[in-house]
C-alpha cells in the first residue's frame, strides 16, 4: 500500500474523529479532553524518546507526562466554566470554581513546581553530567505538548471559536497536504533546506494556494450553513492564510530538525502514512497558539473577535 493511500485512509478516520471532538457538546467536551490527553501522553512519549541521549542526559518522562496531563486537566476544568456552547449547570460550575477559578492563572505555579521537581530528581537520582539537558528537555516537552492543547481549548471557548478551529485546522493540514502533493506532482526546484532537502518551492506554493482556496470556501459558505457571520473577512484571510501557512511550514520543519538530530525518519508508527502523533500534529502545535495570540492582539487593538 502506497504512502498516499495510507494518508487518505488515516484522514478518513481522523477527520470525523476530530470533528466529533470539538463539535459535539452534550458531554461537555469530555471526548475532546480524552482525545487531547491521549495525544499529549503519546506525543510526549515520542518527544522524550527522540530526546533520550542515555549517558549524556535523558528526560524525566513520568514527571513530564504527569505534569502535562495535570496542566491540561486544570485548563479543561477552567474551560468548562467559560465556554458558552453548552454551559455547565450552575451548581457544577460553582463547585469547580472553588478549586479552579476560571480567571486565575494556575498554570504558572504548576510549571514552576515542575522546574523545582526536575532539579530535585536530578540532584537526588542522577549524576551531574547531563543535568542541564535532562532538566531543560523535560520542561520543553511539557511546553511543546501541553500548551498547544490548552490554547486549543481557549480558542474553542471564544464566541466564534468553532469558526476559528475550522480555519486554523484547515490552514494547517491543507498547507501540509497541498505541499505534499504539489511537491510530488510539480516539484522541480528544491527549497534548499538542509533540515528537509526534498521540499520544493512548488510544493510550498501549492500548499499556500490550497489553504487560501479552503479558507475562502469555508468563509463563503459559513453564513448559509450556520446562520452566523464569519469572523474573518476576505481581506483579512488574504493576510492571515499565507502568514499561518508559513507558521505551518516552520512547525513542520521544527519537528524535522528534531528527528534529524535523533537520526530517525518518523517519531513513531502509530498513524499510517504519517508516522507518530508528533509527525501529524507538528505544525498545529505552532498554529493554534499563534492564532490565539493573533486574536488576542486584535482584541487589544479594539477589534471584535
Short overview:
The chain has 305 residues and is mainly α. It has helices at 3-23, 30-51, 61-82, 90-99, 107-125, 131-157, 161-186, 201-226, 234-262, 277-281, 284-300. The model has no long low-confidence stretch (mean pLDDT 88).
Can you give a write-up of this model?
This protein is mostly helical and 305 residues long. The protein has two domains: 26-157, no CATH class; 160-305, no CATH class. Helix content is 73%, strand content 0%. α7 (161-186) runs antiparallel to α8 (201-226). The longest helix is centred in the C-terminal third of the chain and has 29 residues, at 234-262. It is globular.
The residue-averaged pLDDT reads: 88
What form results from the Cα inertia axes? globular
Estimated share of beta-strand residues = under 5%
Listing every helix as H and every strand as E from the N terminus to the C terminus, the arrangement reads HHHHHHHHHHH
Distance between the termini: 45 Å
Helix content: over 70%
Number of separate strands: 0
Contiguous uncertain segments of 5+ residues = none
**DSSP helical segment count:** 11
Radius of gyration: 20 Å
Structural class: mainly alpha
Tag the structure with descriptive keywords:
305 residues, mainly alpha, 11 helices
Write the layout of secondary structure elements.
Blueprint: H1 3-23, H2 30-51, H3 61-82, H4 90-99, H5 107-125, H6 131-157, H7 161-186, H8 201-226, H9 234-262, H10 277-281, H11 284-300
Helix pairs in contact: 1-2, 2-3, 2-6, 3-5, 3-6, 5-6, 6-7, 6-11, 7-8, 7-9, 7-11, 8-9, 9-11
